Amino acid sequence: MPYYQFAKQLTPISDPVADLKRLRFITDADVKLTDANQLWRHLLQRVAVHTPTAASFETWLGQWLANPTLDLATWLNQATPVTNTIFTRVSCQLLGFEPGRDFDLTDPSTFLTTSKLTLPLGDEPLTPSALLTNFFWLLLTRGKNGQTLLDTLTGEGYLAWSYALPATQKPLLFNGQPTANFDPAQFINEVVFVETDVDTDQDGHADLIKVEITRPLDSNQGLQIPAIFTASPYNQGTNDEWGDELMHNVDQPLTHVNPDYQAPQEPAFAPPTTHQRVNGTREQATETFANTPRYTLNDYLLARGYASVYAAGIGTKDSDGRQTCGSPEQTAAMQAVVEWLHGDRTAFTDRTSGIAIQANWCNGRVAMTGRSYLGTLATAVATTGVPGLAAIIAEAGITNWYDYYRENGLVMAPDTFQGEDADVLAAETYSTTRNPARALADHVANENYLAQMRQAQDRTTGQYNAFWAARNYHPHLSQIKADVMVVHGLNDWNVKPNHAKALWEALQKLPGDHKLILHQGQHIYINAFPSLDFNEMVNLWLAEKLWQFPNQAGQLLPDLITQSNLTPGVWQPVSTWQAPLIPTALGHQMITINDQQADATATTWRHQPLTWFNSLLNDTDHHFSYRVTIPRHASWLAGTPTLTVRLKSNHNVGMLSAYLVDHGTAKRLTTTPQLINRHGLQLGYHWHTDDLRDFKLQNQPTERHVIAFGHTNLQNPTGPTSFHDLQADEWVTITMPLQPVMHELAADHELELILFGTDYRMSFRGNQALTYTIDLSQSSLALPWTDFSLQ
Amino acid sequence: MPYYQFAKQLTPISDPVADLKRLRFITDADVKLTDANQLWRHLLQRVAVHTPTAASFETWLGQWLANPTLDLATWLNQATPVTNTIFTRVSCQLLGFEPGRDFDLTDPSTFLTTSKLTLPLGDEPLTPSALLTNFFWLLLTRGKNGQTLLDTLTGEGYLAWSYALPATQKPLLFNGQPTANFDPAQFINEVVFVETDVDTDQDGHADLIKVEITRPLDSNQGLQIPAIFTASPYNQGTNDEWGDELMHNVDQPLTHVNPDYQAPQEPAFAPPTTHQRVNGTREQATETFANTPRYTLNDYLLARGYASVYAAGIGTKDSDGRQTCGSPEQTAAMQAVVEWLHGDRTAFTDRTSGIAIQANWCNGRVAMTGRSYLGTLATAVATTGVPGLAAIIAEAGITNWYDYYRENGLVMAPDTFQGEDADVLAAETYSTTRNPARALADHVANENYLAQMRQAQDRTTGQYNAFWAARNYHPHLSQIKADVMVVHGLNDWNVKPNHAKALWEALQKLPGDHKLILHQGQHIYINAFPSLDFNEMVNLWLAEKLWQFPNQAGQLLPDLITQSNLTPGVWQPVSTWQAPLIPTALGHQMITINDQQADATATTWRHQPLTWFNSLLNDTDHHFSYRVTIPRHASWLAGTPTLTVRLKSNHNVGMLSAYLVDHGTAKRLTTTPQLINRHGLQLGYHWHTDDLRDFKLQNQPTERHVIAFGHTNLQNPTGPTSFHDLQADEWVTITMPLQPVMHELAADHELELILFGTDYRMSFRGNQALTYTIDLSQSSLALPWTDFSLQ
């Protein structure tokens, strides 16, 4: 397993010797030592956190091998000078690698190459100064446990002495980034209620939303700290059963859309007529909480001096309002939290007293974090350009809700959520149900609201309309002022990669420091992989964005990193996510696809969409699909393919689906990270943990893997806002983007395109008697072939 | 989901009013109140941990429904007297149940019946005294989150005030059991090295073993506390890759055993020639640790005033010796830890200084906990009768290693570990590899030892021998002096139910308080189910065993609880695990089983034993098995079936396998608990968590479920110590027990017996040309049919 460490670079504000002194790895006296071996012994004493006595430290030394035959205690007593190679042999063991199994003591070089760990080799005696530099880098090197030695020592309590330092001296920096100097046992948990400018429950009063804050005690003692704000509609609970009950029936036919069709509009919310009167102020909150589900990245940052702030927003437990599922009001309510953190908005200590409270502990600089809906709202708030929002880390976020529940005029489900829609998600996240009396009082109005949403979202046609336009952040992406780190899974079929692509393209046109990490997972978090130093990258990056330490993280970190789909644990900086398109003709024939299945088949496929999926991938007799091999132009595909197809339907309705397939027998990467060590990641000292996990190769080889796909309604031939009054047997030319790809095609694999109608995993499945005729001679696929030169 | 609460019984040392006062739910003034509504308001204020101000408490009250139309704040202002029904309506909400979804406000009675929650109903005005009693019981009632309201409030910080009480006043009891009065942020983590009387590395010195202790600071302040000791060979790390490499090949033939056959003996360990000299003593340990993998039950108990003590034992990181996999030396080393806790043995602060340290913080009473190997060693140590070991909770423990890796003369794998044996487990758990220099120094000797173990365990024949006799705890079960709580899964095919059955039968002949809980899982922990109050039962039970609070837990808790295999979440006290056997004839025919498969089939089945398993269950044409329906005599099977079969093999080797099958289409229980709420169980306040989970019904119905099985070598016709020099075509009568069952046969299901040869999941798979002829007229199955009368 390679260990990629993009944050392991010397920052311009780091001085290794000063940094080591600051963290008490060395004293002034240590710096003056002329004997490298003696200095090394002192450094090792710091590493041996749990064996403080002379006797126990000697035993501790005696467990390591200095060379293939001598233990370190014995070796140190021999007075042979320490060399880079000796240092690295021992260091590999300190990092948890086992001699004989993980690496060869006689040949550490091979291990360093395969593991990508950068540690020095060489047989010259080390100077004390070179030894200190070695040790500085060792602390920043990741071990087998997926954490740097510094973070491992932190988890063992090495930094606990720093808790007692004056708050204003914190955080102690190491290589230009905060270390864990904040006592988790002393964290403050407090609740405030931020007043928004929206009134989504239409009671006349501005909606109040509950905000849960966890922050180090030091922020009450003169240290103003940045805030990590996570906007999570799920955070106060979810109504899973209710959501299941509301799932829509997708086993229904496509219907012809007439040119004059218009779906009902959703109701507009009148602005609030009253705001709460301020009756006084308090310095400290009065309401508290004990436990809240929290993204483990936030836990990691909390121990390093950040506040973690959560709001579930309108329509959730202890807050006012409705769940609007992505509307501007939801964004405005989350924006209000940033405004409060920045000092621009009122919050109260409780819902009724009118006692206002300021975020006087906050330095006014905020980053938003979170995945999926959470990442969505981070992006949405960023598009407001709200002051104080310095950065967002948008992971697997939606950037256009139409692209989440619809596609090119079709109702289209996120993978594994067939039948879900905006109204279902609104009901699922309406945790006001946890306030039974308030839910009862709101029941009729909320049901009415959901009924109107159900009309406005329009599952009858799947056409783009005002409802979806209100939930499309694309027109506002140009107003983003925050620096943005985008994280997305190339195999994410829930929030699909085109959401990230649109954001990334918009960011290319903006000033600021923007990063993109593309991984091979589906809808997952990536802060737990031994192979990628995501936590360290974030700590480095946010040190610049939020603390404004001039560590030049923006310049040091690559702008675009992509994970290899071929080799586990390989992460590569690449230059672009959009290579120029190279068109390919698809053939000369006229082909026919019969989309109707025998009733029994359709029933099976509706119940088991994966059975359909396997049939599709292996449908060699083309009875319901057409597969064509696409010639290779280069080894990589990087960007959004465009498919053009000339076809007709035998009725005045129709849809075309296309899957782009990597074909070749191989053990591919798992799209879900596999557990390596439960609770293996210590996010601080006696603080929360996370499970160490990473992608591995599948146990069994597979033949095919879908790397991109697209669907279009024949009535929307060139995209959701195009419209065509389709007639039966009328030829149309459709042009559609497939999902963006970033994929290396193995040398012995080939690329295939599969064309078909109904997608049992995602689309309506009416099993209509539809037959499509495709004129391949007037169809083509344009692909972003490229050859990255990678290490 | 029903909530069974066996610990929810008034203990003789509880006075509800005094208990409520002790935990500060009421003051002396509260007791004198004559207005029940006012008293209720005061109690609710205690429950509203996070909303301390008048304004925020009013909002908190206003979220609950007192009746189908009025919120509690409004209702309380109306001065209608509180009744049982009003109290229970609100209480259900406090317990997390949602009106309208989880229960009907107009009919709480139905919910109470289905949920098994005991809360009072009635419309008479409550007296203050009756209200206090209600509230006392409410605190002991489990909520939707799977914890009692008291434990929920504990997790929210309600008891944090009690941390500051003098140590000697702790623990505060509630209903005769300790509450969480011990600050996790102040827990002491310390290491000592216990000197054993064994020398398994044969260096002449008594093996030292490392012991990791976590305990409340109060135990340094005059409070002597009990110790929960978990003996876990896994705890310092495992060598998974090495173990995989050592897995034995099972695709090999059965071989004929000659009467004079004897496997090589394992080497005996000479006793140590020297013990460490004591050079002084210390009151406090010098070595520490930060994190250790810990059973969450121990975490729950830690917050309630117990110490948690872990030792990995001989042959592990930082300890001396070898991994002997169940030998008497391993037991003796773990026994030594109990002796030290009881004051009868020396431990040192480190491995070399000779500074001794006593467990002066311990009250000398110890319980051992843990599952699988951990439960095994708890049982093993208990069989020594060591003073100080007051109780063990033996979960899924091995009681005879022969029954783990062998069966009636056959090499037989624990399920999913085909090819594993004692030597493999020894290598896997030899975490001395984490001390590279020590592992290198020990390498040759350890390899030699493993090679000898490999011979002595004897995979050539699978016969019982001295190696296995040394690892059979059955002859020593009668020496158990500790009270024993046995927990075992009826679907545990790893450590099979016969281990628990043997222990339980031995305990029936001993004095003391013994408990048995049989669940429907496989090899799992059960302390995380909403449906069973296992944590509370243990807390109650250990309060009697270890603190010696006379709460009469032994009398209050049922001796034998079994989980229903028909209905999710139902747990039933039953009278016995062995009903009298009723024999059934199997037929009149002579049947033939051909055990040899086509090569391709055998290859597939070797790679995919579950494919074989499905073929076996559905093998209707009897080409490699014979299936017979057994007439029903009652609705339950409770105990060990005995199978007698007259048969012959066409060669001088052979094996017979038998599966007892519940046949009938049904959605059965999952044998693995399903996640309900990740981190949903708070084991204390800002302390560790566990995932709430429970058995559910499978999503898809299944036809058959194997409820018992057995295998025997035809050369061992009546058990492992019987021997027969089998000849080809010689008729033999074998008699074998099947795994013990505790199973309710649904009315429309039937019972089947499947007879066959090779078991691809567990046995050798040599695919020999073996044909068995069975004379059904001389074969029979004796079954423990019974009719429990259950609620």
From TrEMBL, chains A, B:
GO BP terms in the entry: proteolysis
Enzyme class: hydrolase
Catalytic activity entry: Hydrolyzes Xaa-Pro-|- bonds to release unblocked, N-terminal dipeptides from substrates including Ala-Pro-|-p-nitroanilide and (sequentially) Tyr-Pro-|-Phe-Pro-|-Gly-Pro-|-Ile
Keyword Transmembrane helix carried by entry: no
Top-level taxon: Bacteria
Stored InterPro entries: AB_hydrolase_fold, Galactose-bd-like_sf, Pept_S15_Xpro, PepX_N_dom, PepX_N_dom_sf, Xaa-Pro-like_dom, Xaa-Pro_dipept_C
GO MF terms, alphabetically ordered: aminopeptidase activity; dipeptidyl-peptidase activity; serine-type peptidase activity
Domain X-Prolyl dipeptidyl aminopeptidase PepX N-terminal per the UniProt entry, residue ranges: 1-158
Keyword terms, alphabetized: Aminopeptidase, Hydrolase, Protease, Serine protease
Keyword flag Hydrolase: yes
EC number(s) per entry: 3.4.14.11
Domain called Xaa-Pro dipeptidyl-peptidase C-terminal: residue spans: 539-782
Assembly and oligomerization: Homodimer.
Family: Belongs to the peptidase S15 family.
Function comment: Removes N-terminal dipeptides sequentially from polypeptides having unsubstituted N-termini provided that the penultimate residue is proline.
Protein name: Xaa-Pro dipeptidyl-peptidase
Source organism (scientific name): Limosilactobacillus equigenerosi DSM 18793 = JCM 14505
